[in-house]
Structures are given as C-alpha cells and as structure tokens.
Inverse folding.
C-alpha cells in the first residue's frame, strides 16, 4: 500500500513539474523612451498561454506595472508593482489583461496581454473600452489596430 501511495505521489509531483516547466516567461520592458513615444511598455502587446508569466522589467527607474482595476478575467488576481522594481504577473486565467504604469497612465503607458485563445476584434474592443485617460485610449486603439494588421 505504501509503495502504491509513493508511486501516486511521485506521478502527481512529476505532472506538476512538467506543467510548471511548460509555462513560458515573457518580458515587457518599462521604458522612459520608446521608438515612437515616450513612456512605453515594450512590447505593449503579448499573446501568451494561460499559466505563462509576464516579467515587467524596470529599465528606467520611474515606472511600475499594475493591473487596471476591474479589467482582468474573472478569477485572475490583480497585481501592483513598486516604482522602479521588476514585477511578475502570472496569467492564471485565460482572457484579456490590461496593465498600466500608475505614474504615466495619463500619457498612455498601457499594455494589453491576452492569455489563451485570441478573442475576436469586437471582444477585444469591449475589453479595452473602459474609462481610460485620452492618451491611454489612443494607445489601446493603436494596439488593436496593430493586432488587426497581423
């Protein structure tokens, strides 16, 4: 009986390691100057799998990354990084995740992350259609335009 329990435990642990090892880590850099605009996430869009992680790298020390409240998939945990510090977000649920730099949200420093299946353009438009500052709305519109061109 002990041998059977040990074998079952080993199989369960092996499955967890395989699942964890199968998750990818993506990187978004927080920059004070991008190729076209100041104060940007680079890249500002990532399509990943549920279970993957996003590492926000503080290249310039005056940015953070945090969730835009109430604009995350159901069941996903909001996060808030500190200014000038790297932060990791785990894509715990499939869906659309919206991210901002608290200090530069008003000048359009936002990012869009999709975990799992890519939604259609109408669903994406609804996901980003929150009460954002004007420049943030423009950045989200540009991200959606770039996605549509692919």
């Amino acid at each position: 009986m002990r041998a059977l329990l040990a074998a079952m435990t080993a199989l369960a642990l092996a499955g967890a390691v395989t699942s964890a090892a199968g998750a990818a880590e993506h990187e978004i850099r927080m920059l004070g100057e991008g190729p076209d605009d100041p104060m940007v996430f680079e890249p500002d869009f990532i399509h990943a799998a549920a279970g993957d992680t996003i590492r926000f790298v503080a290249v310039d020390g005056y940015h953070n990354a945090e969730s835009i409240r109430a604009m995350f998939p159901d069941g996903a945990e909001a996060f808030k990084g500190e200014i000038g510090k790297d932060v990791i977000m785990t894509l715990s649920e499939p869906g659309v995740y919206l991210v901002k730099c608290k200090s530069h949200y008003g000048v359009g420093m936002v990012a869009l992350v999709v975990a799992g299946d890519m939604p259609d353009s109408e669903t994406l438009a609804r996901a980003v259609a929150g009460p954002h500052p004007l420049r943030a709305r423009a950045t989200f519109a540009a991200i959606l335009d770039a996605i549509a061109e692919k």
